[in-house]
Amino acid sequence: MQAGKPILYSYFRSSCSWRVRIALVLKGIDYATVPINLVKDGGQQFSEEFQALNPMMQVPALKIDGLTIGQSLAIIEYLEETRPAPRLLPQDPKKRASVRMISDLIASGIQPLQNLSVLKQVGKENQLAWAQNVISSGFNALEKILQSTAGKYCVGDEVSMADLCLVPQVANAERFKVELTSYPTISRINKMLLALEAFQVTHPCRQPDTPPELRA
After folding, report:
1. Contact 205/194 with Cβ under 8 angstroms?
2. Alpha carbon distance 71, 62 (integer Å)
3. Tell me: the pLDDT tens digits for 11-41?
4. pLDDT digit string (tens) for 155-180?
5. In what order do the strands lie in the sheet with 32-35?
6. Hey, what's the torsion of the CAs at 63, 67, 68, 74, to 10 degrees?
7. Which residues of 143-182 are buried (b: 16+ CB within 10 A; e: fewer)?
């Protein structure tokens, strides 16, 4: 199926890119990384070359099977449909709906509102408070949902697309100094997931474009 090694256009700190990196590793897909620095040179995502690849001028973008896909959840769903093992969407339709609900809550209801492009609009002096409010509001809802869906992980005891969204968003919360003690379920699941190799090797501190001072 593969025509050459897949290419992931990624930024080390991008939570959306991290989701896809985890999916690629979990599914055992060997891929190459092309770093797109979102802050250098005014943002490399705005270059004509990258805009031709992804008109939304966002990472991630994945070249695979002769196709270029943007939007992290669309990429993960494509990988799930073409390379179903190990599965990231449960077989049970109700659990599958829960996974998609949680994934969308994070990917549509939290992360875009605290993304770099939005923070630029609210003014530097307001950025921290804005991001903290957005994340806390979303986590208040997410904590309640997870109390009814979670087992070991977000939905039951299998790693799913929801978990791929959760861990990067908790990292964002920590970066913006959100107090996480109010979210014990989120914190417990995050800790369990960070013990897994796929989440460790894809961590922002271990990427090809991670600055030396942020490496771990």
Report:
1. no
2. 9
3. 999 999 999 999 999 999 999 999 999 988 8
4. 999 999 999 999 999 999 999 999 99
5. 32-35, 7-10, 61-64, 67-70
6. -100
7. bebbeebbeebbbbebbbbbbbbbbbbbbbbeebebebee
